[in-house]
Fold this protein.
Amino acid sequence: MSSSAAPSSAAPSNPATLDPIAAARQRQLGYTAAIVTYIYWGLSPVLYHFLGHVPPLEVMAHRIVWGLALALPLVVWFGQTDALLAVLRQPRKLAVFAGSATAISINWLTFIYATGHGHKLDSSMGYYIFPLASVLLGALFLKERLSRWQWLAVGLASLGVLMMLIGLGRLPWVALVIAASFGIYGLLRKIAPAESLVGFTLEVLLIAPIAMIGLLWVAWTGTGALPYGSGLDITLLVISGPFTAVPLVLFALGARRLPLGTLGMLQYINPTIQFAMAVAVYGETFTLGHAASFALIWTAVALFAGEPMLLRRRQRRA
């Protein structure tokens, strides 16, 4: 692994400030990072399904501690120690990461609970709603503008989500908490003053002391999965750290190179995989209303993604 592959704190977060070729490369990097992240997150319920008997707070604490155990050596390896220390010395910048750490902690805890306790469809719904929150936050705080076709896509996605909400016949609190917490996290990571690896390390570093105290407590009382759980439990808890760190680093990389609205619409890959697994693998109920919602949302994604290609074709013809 060469040093040239290291995430750079000086890497541009706005491709529009670069020359056209460099900007295109940055956007492509952002697209690749985001798509890989969303595919992984779509498959991640498998891991937490097997850990459903472990308390969600304990699982989250392991994610934080083992994620930090991976991230700190990588920061040193890639020569990012100075960048990490620089943010730690600046209270205002550190406050942004304290906010993103809080938001992602809430998201993790809710997701772990949902996937381990039979609410996988609610979880997928939350990630369907999230892009709507993401687009709204981008318009309100980052002044990102959407075209008429993109607003039509947002409207269709909203209608699809509304159909899912009505079809449930109850307040889907899991979905709403997941959408709100991850929407805020995405906004904060876009404006966070550090590159992806440093940013993730700061987040887990800020919440690791609480996680460590919790794990020491359950170990001392003899109720913790580590060291009293099965070999499978211990293995899954340990690998939950790398499985948390890598996609979040990739997500942050994508968030700094793509408009927040685009990032949000691409994320439909994640809940679609979750939705399909919830029905096909875990046997959760699939209704006609769900099918209609699914169709509306993917029509919205096609509109959102297809408009830029249509504009480029028109420009070439002109």
User: Anything to note?
Assistant: The longest helix spans residues 288-317.
